[in-house]
Amino acid sequence: MNSSYDVAIVGAGIVGLGAAYAAVRRGQRVIVIDRSAEPHGATIRNFGHLCIGAQTGQARRYGDKARGLWLTLAREAGFWLRESGTLVVARHEDELALLSAAAESGGIDVLSAAETEERIPLAPGVAIGGAHIRTDLQTDPRTAAAAIRRYLAERGVEFLLRTSVGSVSEGEVVTSRGTITAGLVVVAVNHDIDQLLPDLAEAAGVQRCGLDMLRVRTDLRSPLDAPLLTGWSLTRYGRFAELPEVVAVRERLHAERPDLAALDLNQMYTQLPDGTLIVGDTHVRGGSIEPFQPEGAGDLLLTEAETLFGSPMQVIERWQGVYASAPEDFLVDITTPGIAVLTATTGIGMTTGLGLAETTLAPLLPALATA
Q1: Mean pLDDT computed over 282-310
Q2: Digit-coded pLDDT (tens) for 165-203
Q3: Residue 369: inside a domain, yes or no?
Q4: How confident is the prediction for the chain on average, in pLDDT?
Q5: What is the pLDDT of residue 42?
Q6: Are residue 50 and residue 130 in the same domain, yes or no?
Q7: Which among 350, 362, 36 has a CA at the least distance from the CA of 184?
Q8: Same-domain pairing of 244 and 126
C-alpha cells in the first residue's frame, strides 16, 4: 500500500466499484478500502435484477446511465449479463389496468393472457395478462461484483481489504493499516454510513432494511428468460406506485392477503444460469436487524412460488439481505470539501449504483482522456 492517491474509496460494493470505474477511466490513481475479504453485502444478496424501466425521477436517470456502464463492464470484464427486459404477470383486472396506464409513457409492452402464458412458465389459468418492460437487464450478483473487482485491479485500481476505516476527513482516510491521503475521498458504505458518519446518517433518516430470500431448485415447464414481477412488486416501484391505478391494487392485495402484506412482500423471481430460481422477498426496517429469520416467512415465500408456477420447489439456500433505507431514495452529500458520500437508500442499488457514482463524480474528476 502506498499512502497517497488521487481517489480513495471506502466500500467495495457496487457503488464503490462504480466510483472506482469512473475514476480509473479518467486516469486517476485509485484505492478501494473495505473491511471484508470478499463481497458479501447487499451487492451479492440480491436478485441480479437491474430494474431500470420501473423507476422514475432521479432513480430512472441513474438507472439509464448505469445501463450502458453495465453493458460495457460485462463485455470488458467478462461476466454474464443479458438484455432480458422484465416480465410482469397480472392476476387481476386492476393489475392489468395499472400496467396499461404505465405503458402509455412508453417502454412497456402489455401482453394478453395467451402471450403471458407463452412467455412465462406459470401454472395454467394464473395470468389474465401481463407486460414486458423492455430496458431492463439481468446479471448474476454472485459473480458480477467479483469480476468487476478483478477487472478494475487489472486496470490499476488497488484494493485494501480486511481493513476497517475509523474516520474520514478532507483529503484523509484513517484505517486500521495506516492513514491514506487522497485528493478526493468517496464514502460508499451503504447502511454502515451510520457507523462512519452518524450525524449525516441521522439527518437523512437512514436505517437498515432486512429481507429474507431463498434459492430453490425446481422444474419449470420452460426457462424463465427474464426477471418476473407480480402485483405486489407494482406497488413498490415508482413508475407504477405513482399512478392513481395503484390504489386499487394495493387495497385489494392487503385485504385479500394481510399475512403477505405484514411481510411487506415484493413477490419477484429471477432464474440464474444454472437453472435455480431466486425467490423473494420480505422487508423489515429498523436501526438494527435481528439475524433470526422466521420460518413462517420462508414458508409463505415458498408456497406463493409453488402456486404461481405450479411446480414443487426444493430450497437449497436461505439468506438475509440488509441494505440502507431512508425517506429519500439516495443520500448524496458533497458539501464537505474533498469528500463525496454516495448511498442508495432503497433496494435499487444494483439498478442505479453505477449511474449514481458516474453522475455524481463526473464533475469532481478530470475530463475523460478520450473526451
Answers
A1: 94
A2: 999 999 999 999 999 999 999 999 999 999 999 999 999
A3: no
A4: 95
A5: 83
A6: no
A7: 362
A8: yes
User: What is the dihedral angle through the alpha carbons of 185, 181, 176, 344, rounded to the nearest 10 degrees?
Assistant: 0
Q: Which three cell numbers stand for residue 231?
A: 402485483
- Mean pLDDT value across residues 6-28: 97
**Residue 371 covered by a domain:** no
DSSP 8-state class, residue 304: H
Q: How far is residue 183 CA from its own chain's centroid?
A: 29
pLDDT score recorded for residue 371: 36
Q: What is the CATH number of the domain that holds 256?
A: 3.30.9.10
Contact 228, 197 (CB under 8 A): no
Together in a domain, 28 and 73: yes
For residue 285, the enclosing domain spans 86-134+207-325
pLDDT tens column, 38-54: 878 888 889 999 999 99
172 and 73 inside one domain: yes
Cβ neighbors of 90 (< 8 A, separation 6 or more) are 96, 99, 116, 127, 128, 129, 130, 131, 231
Least confident interval from 41-50, 246-255, 278-287: 41-50
Within a 10 A sphere around the Cβ of 250, how many other Cβ atoms? 18
Q: How many domains does the chain have?
A: 2
* Contact present, 296 and 265 (Cβ < 8 Å): no
pLDDT at 38: 85
Following DSSP, what letter does each residue of 57-78 receive, concatenated? HHHHHHHHHHHHHHHHHHHHHT
* Domain CATH number, residue 200: 3.50.50.60
Query: Quick one: 222 and 146 in the same domain?
Result: no
Distance in Å from the first CA to the final CA of the chain: 31
Rounded to whole angstroms, the Cα distance separating 236 from 245 reads: 13
- Residue 370 falls within a domain, yes or no? no
